[in-house]
Amino acid sequence: MSVSKSVTMANIAAHLTNQPTFMAFELDKHVYANQLIPKQLLAKKLTTVAYPMGKVTFTQTALALADEFGAPLLTVPVADVTGVTVGIYQTVVGDLGAITPISTQYTLNLVVKTTMATYDLLNQDLTAVPALLTWLAATPVAVTDPMQLRAQLDTADWTQLDQQQVEQWAQGSAYATPWQQLGAAAPTSKLAK
């Protein structure tokens, strides 16, 4: 049995609190915003949907969220954040061509719980992980790290993780089961094991 999850495909302002949403992460004036696009022309046409990407700017005192047009949506004081969960989704994707190779795409997931709402944020630039965890360590926010990413900060090459590493980190967590891409470059449906 699979579980589906729709990501925000338009109008971030209307869906930010009820769907996972792709966001660029700005930490220490560096923007992490890698949208993965298949290399093959046919794959680009069949499997890549241009999803909107908003932006969240992390400061010492707040998270400032903006929509896909750069318009400010809200500012969440760090004091209002009751907890965050950090993990990495594994998504099985096909890069169509003469032969359909199957590969795994990784998506950073940051779930921010506040006193008013929960924000499920996605970002495909895994080089954001060290900066994000460093920012979180400097705040009083309670962090749930089911993949023990903090323990990997000094040893992982965040520019090129391999499937075995990520699967090992994900064992026993909600991130252990790969997702399947259904028409968008995002985790959308869990694969049954």
Structure in a nutshell:
The protein is α/β, with parallel strands linked by helices. It has one domain (12-184).
Fold and architecture overview:
There is one protein chain. The protein contains four helices and eleven strands; from the N terminus they run αββαββββββαβαββ. It is α/β, with parallel strands linked by helices. β1 (21-27) and β2 (30-32) form a beta hairpin. The radius of gyration is 16 Å and the shape is globular.
List the helices and strands and how they pair.
Elements lengths: L11 H4 L5 E7 L2 E3 L8 H7 L6 E5 L3 E5 L5 E6 L3 E14 L7 E13 L3 E6 L4 H10 L5 E2 L18 H8 L8 E2 L8 E2 L3
Parallel strand pairs: 1-3, 1-8, 6-9, 6-10
Antiparallel strand pairs: 1-2, 3-4, 4-5, 6-7, 7-8, 10-11
